[in-house]
Amino acid sequence: MNLRLAVSLALLFTVISCGFAGCVSGPEDAAIPGNLTLAMVVNGNVTDEKVFGYTDILALPSYTGQGYAVSTVGIKYGPYVCTGVKLANLVSLLGAPGPDDSVWVSAPDGYMWVFEPDQMAGRNFITFDDNLIEIPSPPLTIVLMYEQDGKPLAYNDGAPFRIAITSEEPGVITEGSAWVKWVDRIEVHRKG
Ligand SMILES: Nc1nc2c(c(=O)[nH]1)N[C@H]1C(S)=C(S)[C@@H](COP(=O)(O)O)O[C@H]1N2
Ligand SMILES: [Mo]
Structural domain boundaries of the chain? Predict the structure, then answer.
């Protein structure tokens, strides 16, 4: 069998088996379901670390809010119904939160976003209306989202876990840069 035929057959087999498995393509699947590590960092030292599987996260009390975001170039995405775990509830699994804790959320592509204490309490986000006019912010809730519009999050949308900044009422747009995709590590930073 010549090389070209062998490659074609291998490709065909991959396509067929992916079809049966319902997968989209290769490397993406490695990210689903994925583990999530929660760490406490005091004065720069990791003092506690907990690892959660996908189903562990889904077993925690869930919250659903309204999410809508805008990218740096002004492209809006959403509005979405965002379901997941409140980030504040998740980090409280490391113990009672401190008033000055900041929460660092990162992903395997090296992207990281830091939520300051007031943002963990739902304040001090920049918000816009549907016309991208800045509006005073209602109370917001940071969610570690695993379901978007009632369906499991898709890889391109940040599966298995993505940060969503949500409100109770729809139509509140937040900055897309905080919506970290493919979240695999969350660190609580505290000064001792
Ligand atoms: N892991 C990860 N998350 C990320 C980013 C990134 O580069 N890596 N970009 C952020 C920025 S700057 C924006 S505007 C949105 C873009 O979301 P989209 O890719 O769904 O359009 O994702 C945010 N989340
Ligand atoms: Mo962005």
Answer: 1-26, 31-190
